[in-house]
Amino acid sequence: MRRTRLLKVLVAILLVAGLLVPSTVIALTSPADGNNLLLGNPSKAVHSTASPNNYLMTTSNYTLSYNKSRGEPNWVSWYVGSSSLGSVDRLNNFRADSTLPAGWYEVQANGYSGSGFDRGHNCPSADRTSSVAANSSTFLMTNMIPQAPRNNEGTWANFENYLRGLVKSGDELYIVMGSYGTGGTGSKTCQTTIDGGHVAVPAHIWKVAVVLSNGTKDLSRITTKTRVIAINTPNINTVSSKWQTYLTSVDAIEKATGEDLLSNVPAAIQKVIEAKVDSNPATSPVPIVVVPPVSGKTTFQPATKDYTVYVTATGKTYHRLGCQYLSKSCIPILRSKAIAEGYTPCSVCNP
Hints:
Blueprint: H1 2-16, H2 22-29, E1 55-58, E2 63-67, E3 72-80, E4 118-121, H3 132-137, E5 144-147, H4 149-168, E6 171-180, E7 184-185, E8 190-191, E9 193-194, E10 199-200, E11 204-213, E12 227-234, E13 247-248, H5 250-257, H6 267-273, E14 288-294, E15 297-302, E16 308-311, E17 317-319, E18 331-334, H7 335-340, E19 344-345
Parallel strand pairs: 17-19
Antiparallel strand pairs: 1-2, 2-3, 3-6, 4-5, 6-11, 7-8, 9-10, 11-12, 12-13, 14-15, 16-17, 16-18
Helix pairs in contact: 1-2
């Protein structure tokens, strides 16, 4: 970090002296190709215990912002190229991350047991098959979130496989994945926390992938025509297995999370590519319904006339996942059935 600051000061002096041109500055200050944070640090996370809910953790295989209060990452960022993929088998060696600061709760391998949620990878095991060490790193619990099984094993697995297919066809990817909100429905019931309250169950799970053909000087090759694929899924067990259902824009995810996902990309380029929803014919996108946000958060529902809403054990209103009135109980029900049973829409979340 100190070396980076010194470099910036030196560059500024040389610019003023006329000894450097802007193109040289970009080359000097840009992250190296394959850097897991080439797109930027979305939340300006720092490696300091003074920032426990935005704590930067860096490995050679991915970089993340850890949230101590939630017991999971805010986001994880990584690179996938041909060198990332090999023939190493999935290790399944889930384990606590002992590199967390002393005194912080370490989620154990069995922390999700009996909850109805999968240990959902952020950086996937199959994106790191070049070596045993690389694959093993993806099984640290700091790389996990409680994910509804059908979301993890269907929707998410299909998207991950599609992205790796791009790499095998000659592309390289820079990916950021994260989650936000509280309250998801696994194979059992809707829950807001698991592991004795140490781990928050996110309401939404998102991913952004920047696609480049194989080459060099990657950051400078991102243009207004660069393909960016973004999805945002509800963390429920009734999601469609077609990830294309949940296509969205980077702008929408940034609005929901408050993060700046492509901060290293020039602002003029960001403005264009962050507003787009991927429409590449290969993805065969289907329409998306954007439900009005709860407390500034954007929520996505599959494009269908009927969809899942949530009721409490005692109330007579139905809600969207993440509504503040679902903190004590959360029972999934089809909207049409809720209406038929006399439930009325919540005036706060406007489902």
